[in-house]
UniProtKB/TrEMBL annotation:
Its EC number is 5.6.2.4. The lineage of its organism: Bacteria, Pseudomonadati, Planctomycetota, Planctomycetia, Pirellulales. Keywords: ATP-binding, DNA-binding, Helicase, Hydrolase, Isomerase, Metal-binding, Nucleotide-binding. The keyword ATP-binding applies. It catalyses: Couples ATP hydrolysis with the unwinding of duplex DNA by translocating in the 3'-5' direction. Residues 28-196 form the Helicase ATP-binding domain. One of its GO terms (molecular function) is DNA helicase activity. Residues 229-377 form the Helicase C-terminal domain. Transmembrane segments: none annotated. Belongs to the helicase family. RecQ subfamily. This is ATP-dependent DNA helicase RecQ. Gene3D superfamilies: P-loop containing nucleotide triphosphate hydrolases.
Length: 511
């Protein structure tokens, strides 16, 4: 039997799917052949299967890194539903649980291990896994390595070292963000070797993109009210996300709209961890709700029936915008995505785009690690970040950021369990200058990304073709069924007309 028909049989047996979706078969075969693989497919197109199937076929353990532990849990649960044993390693596990986890690995009972980059660094998990034998290292939401786009997670920068510690298994990296820039960053940061690239069009015909110019907070609030209450048989009482750039807006709007028919939820980075989790769970599993959130919400969530994504403020890049609207309509049914655009939003956004490390901070962090290894390093030459903070003038977070930047150049390396190792004992001014320059350049890149987003919002041309152009996607010819507000303004007008009629009706009742 050919490899492909064997895989197809397995697809049906283990997952109950009749056929592969576009790109899945190619991705599975590449991973089975031990190649590094990069999967660029839109949200909802079935990226997970591209590691699940090879993971089952290959003998060793498949390690899957997700940016958030809640995502890791979702992924593990979906495998377990299919009767496949998977374990999750997170910091909330007790000693006893970790012991039984080790047992499961040693006995070969677990085929999949889900974790986060932090966990891989903080524990001796890598060494344990290497002993058992890892034959696929999966990096989900790989665009998190990108320092200028969206969802940046510094710990992703260290995954190339995790691969080495795992015994050099092939990497399978997956993302929905496919700009040439991000792809380059993923390949260089993860040090993918001659990767097989599987790339599907970013076009999602079921997402109706619309941009609404607004000139004040009041006009935005009024539009938002209409969007959240108008029932055109598509969005009435169905799950919606409203994205805002500031926590202040999230809280104000949640308060203002607290008497909607649907439950109102909030999510942002300053909430307590448990509150955030409760809020996410309520959105995922509870009755249809409206979620008011900052961009901290939504990465990788697998909720099929989100019917509306509304941007109350402009996202910082087209990548971010695409990721966020992509969370709507994963079930393939129509969904509406409305971007509100007020030139005033730009002030806040420009503020977000700044921020970088300077050369002397990098040199200080390096010096501190040299000192730390001598003064309080353990036998294996590693030293804990906690000990370093005691002898450094830099704050813990800055110190960690600096070490991560130095690690991305192979000058230092994370050694697991929150410990760091020195690889080069000398680092010239030239090099720290260069790293700092890169950081500055990334801040400039963020400004450029923002400008592109403003241009997108301001231009009156097909929304989807603008996005596909941005991603160098050459399938622009298939846009015949595009329903964006430029290609099909009628839907909009009929909504407006109906709203007008409704207003008249109410006026009549009142008078
Ligand atoms: P994403 O690309 O966003 O990571 P997922 O991997 O979460 O997407 O998959 C989205 C949905 O598609 C899941 O509910 C999954 O069960 C379903 N799916 C994946 N592959 C297939 C297939 N070959 N046939 C039918 N459904 C599939
Ligand atoms: Mg996914």
């Amino acid at each position: 039997m050919s490899q492909t028909s064997q895989l197809r049989e397995r697809l049906e047996q283990s997952f109950g799917y009749k056929r592969f979706r576009p790109g899945q078969s190619k991705a599975c075969r590449a991973a089975m052949d031990g190649r590094d693989t990069l999967i660029l497919m839109p949200t909802g197109s079935g990226k997970s299967l591209c590691y699940q199937l090879p993971g089952l076929e290959l003998d060793g353990v498949t390690v899957v890194v997700s940016p958030l532990i809640s995502l890791a849990e979702d992924q593990a649960a979906s495998l377990q539903e299919n009767g496949i044993h998977a374990v999750i390693l997170n910091s909330s596990k007790s000693k006893k649980q970790i012991e039984s986890f080790r047992e499961d690995l040693r006995s070969g009972r677990s085929e999949f291990v889900f974790t986060t980059p932090e966990q891989l660094q903080q524990t001796d998990l890598c060494e344990l896994l290497a002993e058992v034998g890892v034959d696929l290292f999966v990096i989900d939401e790989a665009h998190c390595v990108s320092q200028w786009g969206h969802d940046f997670r510094p710990d992703y920068l260290c995954l190339q070292y995790a691969r080495k510690r795992l015994g050099d298994p092939p990497i399978l990296a997956m993302t929905a963000t496919a700009s040439a820039r991000t792809v380059d960053e993923i390949i260089s940061c993860l040090q993918l070797i001659n990767p097989v690239t599987v790339s599907n069009s970013a076009y999602r015909s079921n997402l109706r993109l619309a941009v609404k110019a607004c000139d004040s907070e009041a006009s935005k609030d009024e539009l938002l009210h209409r969007l959240l209450t108008y029932d055109d048989g598509l969005v009435g009482n169905e799950p919606a996300i409203v994205y805002c750039n500031t926590i202040k807006d999230v809280e104000r709007l949640a308060e203002k709209f607290s008497n909607l028919d649907a439950p109102v939820l909030v999510y942002h980075g300053r909430m307590k961890k448990q509150d955030r989790l409760d809020s996410q769970n309520a959105f995922m599993d509870g009755p249809p709700a409206v979620m008011f959130a900052t961009n901290a919400f939504g990465l990788g969530i697998d909720k099929p029936d989100i019917r509306q994504v509304i941007h109350y403020t402009l996202p910082g890049s087209i990548e971010a915008y695409y990721q966020e609207v992509g969370r709507a309509g994963r079930d393939g049914k129509n969904a509406n995505c409305t971007l509100m655009f007020d030139a005033d939003d730009l002030r806040v956004l420009k503020m977000f785009a700044g921020g970088h490390l300077d050369s002397s901070q990098l040199a200080t962090a390096h010096h501190c690690l040299c000192q730390g290894v001598q003064r309080c390093g353990s036998e294996d030459g590693t030293v804990a970040l906690t000990d370093l903070t005691k002898i450094s003038a830099l704050g813990r977070q800055t110190l960690k950021n600096c070490l991560q930047q130095l690690a991305s150049r192979g000058i230092v390396a994370p050694a697991g369990r929150g410990r760091w190792r020195l690889l080069l004992s000398e680092v010239s001014r030239d090099i720290t200058d260069r790293i700092a320059d890169d950081a500055r350049r990334r801040a400039e890149d963020r400004q450029i990304a923002l400008r592109q987003m403003v241009e997108f919002a301001g231009r009156h041309s097909c929304r989807w073709s603008a996005i596909l152009n941005h991603f160098d996607d050459d399938l622009t010819a298939d846009l015949e069924d595009c329903r964006c507000d430029v290609c099909e303004p009628d839907i909009n007008r009929s909504v407006e007309k109906a709203v007008e009629a409704e207003k008249r009706e109410i006026a009549e009742i009142i008078s």
